[in-house]
Amino acid sequence: MSEHVIDSGEPYHPEKLDKKEYVGAAAYFEMDLRTGVVLEVEDFPEMRKPSYKIHVDFGPVIGKLWSSAQITNYSRAQLIGRTVVGAINLGDKTLPTGFVSQFLVLGSLDPDGTVRLLELPEGVLPGSMVA
Predict the structure, then answer these.
(1) What distance in Å separates the CA atoms of residue 120 and residue 98, rounded to the nearest whole number?
(2) Mean of the per-residue pLDDT values of the chain
(3) Is residue 16 classed exposed, middle or buried when 0-12, 13-18 and 19+ CB atoms within 10 A define those classes?
(4) Nearest 10 degrees: Cα torsion 34, 39, 40, 41
(5) 17 belongs to a structural domain
(6) Which of 7, 81, 94, 99 lies at 20 to 30 Å from 48 by C-alpha?
(7) For 127, how many CA atoms within 13 A lie in the half-sphere containing its CB?
(8) Residue 7 in domain
(9) Is 64 inside a domain boundary?
(10) Which of 13 and 53 is assigned the larger pLDDT?
(11) Does the model's pTM come out above 0.85?
């Protein structure tokens, strides 16, 4: 596994991204990717990079989970009520502040590293599996 290194400028420009090694379909199907609705958004000034704490409802089976996300390019008003995609079975991560991040919110990266959340059509139910 290679170390994640950030360069200045546009580290995530598609021309700079190497193709990852083959892992097989089984690795993908082990991921539990679900849709959820953002309920709360809190500032998280203790983090090194601008971040929010987000509380997301993943439906009746999974329930409500918290995460830290570097998505401050969205306003709190733009996030509350928005349907997002989360990887919910990666395990809890305790951040240096003591906050426990329970899932990873998914998006694409602009060349400069800005996260653009995945867009979903209206009517997707919280807790729906992403295939």
Answers:
(1) 32
(2) 92
(3) exposed
(4) 50
(5) no
(6) 81
(7) 7
(8) no
(9) yes
(10) 53
(11) yes
